[in-house]
Amino acid sequence: MTELEGQLTAALERLSEQFRTEQQQRAEERQQHSEQAEASRRGFEQQSAEIEALRQLIERQSAENATLRQRIERQSAENATLRQRIERLDGLVTPLARDYATLAATLRGLWK
Q: In angstroms, rounded to a whole number, what is the distance separating the alpha carbons of residues 64 and 75?
């Protein structure tokens, strides 16, 4: 082998080694990228599941709120009805109390 052939062979071996090293680095980078992409995908799926769970919770809470609003409205109506009954009964009791007081005074006057 001539000196030139030796130099060319050595240069070719260096280039081949450099090529193998670069190919290995690219393969490692692709592997890292794939792992990162998979981790991102799993994170996205987990976030999507969490968002769906929150959406369902919001729907349940909204339904419960509507039920509570209806219950409050019914209780308000019942309270108004009870207030009216109390006012009516108070209107009946006051004259009865006066009549009772008058009757009691009359009976006391008769028993003396």
A: 16
Q: What pTM was computed for the model?
A: 0.54
Q: pLDDT by residue (tens digit) across 68-102? A: 999 999 999 999 999 999 999 989 888 888 888 89
How high is the mean pLDDT of the chain? 94
Q: Quick one: DSSP state of residue 112?
A: -
Q: Angle CA(89)–CA(94)–CA(99) in degrees, nearest 5?
A: 125
Which alpha helices (DSSP H) does the chain contain, by range?
Answer: 3-111
CA angle 51, 56, 61 (to 5 degrees): 120
Distance CA 101, CA 109 (A): 12
Inter-residue contact 6 to 13 (CB < 8 Å): no
d(CA 6, CA 2) in angstroms, rounded, equals 6
Other C-beta atoms closer than 10 Å to the C-beta of 20 total 10
* Cα–Cα dist 38/12, whole Å: 38
Q: Which two tokens stand for residue 51?
A: 């968002």
